[in-house]
Write the structure tokens for this entry.
Amino acid sequence: MSADESRQRRQLLIEQLRASGALRDEAVASAFRAVPRELFLPGLPLDQVYQDQAIVTKEENGVGVSSSSQPAIMAIMLQQLDVRPGMQVLEIGAGTGYNAALLQQLVTDSGRVVTVDIDPEVAGWARERLRAAGYPRVAVVRADGAGGYAPAAPYDRVQLTVGTAEIAPAWAAQLYPSGRLVLPLWVNTAQLSVCFEKRGDHLFSRSLQPCGFMAIRGALAGPNRYAPLTDDLMVMPGRSDLPLDELRRLLGRPGGNQPVPLGLTPGWGFTLWLALRGDRVLGVIARESAVGFSGAGFGLYLGGAEPGIALLVLPADDSRPADLVWFGATGARDALLRELAAWRAAGEPVTGDFELAACPRATAPRPARDQVAVDTAHWRLLFTLPGAALASA
């Protein structure tokens, strides 16, 4: 491998990210251009290193627990952060150290980056790779990221590179006023990259984007969000007490399939819309041999005397319509079609059309008519869709 070949690969990746719309900021592009990703993924061929994909770097019991994130979502999150020279930045989830190196490029020598990881092996790896790549100023701390890192606080920016269903109070407390917190936030079956701005003791979204990240470990890990039903079938329930035996039985009895044209609007907006429906929401990941479709579907489960499941399965590309598949009674199918009609009546909003406020539970207001509330242990999340009565849809 030559230095010229590495530089060429980096430039090709930048052009690919620009063409996809993921990369628009020149400072972030310059950071990608300056940091060789292969230094954080030694031993892998350059054609794999510079594909726009996540690369798992550590597994436990067959499940990935650490990775180098997909460059596209890295670019999106770095742009949400709006990191500038001289800033103090805290990263939760060190991974390979590559994202921390990008952050250090953005803050320059006048700023400081601290990255925290709960896994001593991962933290040690990130520290070693950062030093070898020429970024000794990045402080790598082995700790549970749920507590942030108080010794270097306050921060201008806090970024998580792991998915969480809870916003740790420490992350907000360790931010300067008007500081930004960017994190992959689980809301039932949807995961969102949310850019929050701190105002007083509240957090208000500046942008929301769909994303997918490995789950946080440690104090905020919570229950496993994926429940295996068979070797070929896994569900992601909106709540932890759904009857898995009944789900397994229903999914073994396909009821029907019909195409659902979604037009040119991405289905991601409907994923969030549906996730805000609460405990009826269900995600399914399947091999085709298991239930008649392969990939990921999301939809609704209805129990009672006539139980059923209905799922919307998005195609791999936008040239084909989505598939609506249902199992058991048709009530779930009809409910999913009603939600789809309501989403369309609201203008087919995408994820970025929603607004989100995080209010401390002790002082949180009741949701307004045009809002949906999702409560966590510490916060009330208030989702708003401007111009639409979201709660009554």
